[in-house]
Write a structure and sequence with these properties.
183 residues; alpha/beta; 7-stranded mixed sheet; 6 helices; 7 strands
């Protein structure tokens, strides 16, 4: 069976919605951010407008809008992904060296190139309220291995798998939990 199909079926079997979440932080993210129908990326806001905006850019936009990060590092992001991120947080500073990042976006094409040493360097640029967005964590076995490796890092306290996007949080005040959620 095709890897993506098998991975998606496993995701559907294990995933929950907001009713299966007992973390106030994640519940608010779902209800006020990801499930909020008032927050939408309009197709005409993009430089290359289509009739509609697909699920992944909408999800990325909602995440960025919800958290409004002040500084963002993008690794391997496409121009369209950077545009969506900029629209979600227009005041954010991008890819500024020597700073702590509120948000790090990693494109799935970069998972193979990020060594454990590089991951530790990236982890050292985060703080308690920082988060990472990993695009397409179920693309292939290597992407899933990268996701699994990151989830086991002791600095990571909360992860959210939405199938299309993985979110990683470093909240010291929260017990370690890993969520598989439909968004």
């Amino acid at each position: 069976m095709n890897f993506r199909i098998q991975s998606y079926l496993q995701f559907l079997w294990h995933s929950k919605n907001e009713h299966g979440v007992h973390s106030p932080f994640v519940f608010l993210l779902l209800t006020q951010g990801l499930y909020n129908k008032k927050i939408r990326l309009a197709a005409d806001a993009l430089s290359n407008p289509n009739k509609s905006v697909s699920r992944e850019p909408q999800l990325l936009y909602k995440i960025i809008r919800y958290f409004e990060p002040k500084s963002i590092l993008t690794i391997g992001a496409t121009p369209s992904e950077i545009e969506v991120i900029r629209l979600g947080s227009p005041q954010a500073r991008f890819n500024v060296d020597g700073t702590l990042y509120h948000c790090i976006f990693i494109h799935s094409n970069e998972f193979d190139t990020i060594t454990n040493e590089r991951m530790e360097q990236l982890l050292n640029t985060t703080q308690n309220d920082s988060f990472w967005i990993l695009e397409n964590i179920h693309l292939n076995r290597a992407a899933e291995a990268f996701w699994s490796n990151l989830k086991t890092n002791p600095k990571v306290t909360v992860t959210i798998d939405t199938f299309h996007i993985g979110l990683v949080f470093f909240r010291k005040e929260q017990a370690e939990e890993h969520f598989i959620l439909r968004a």
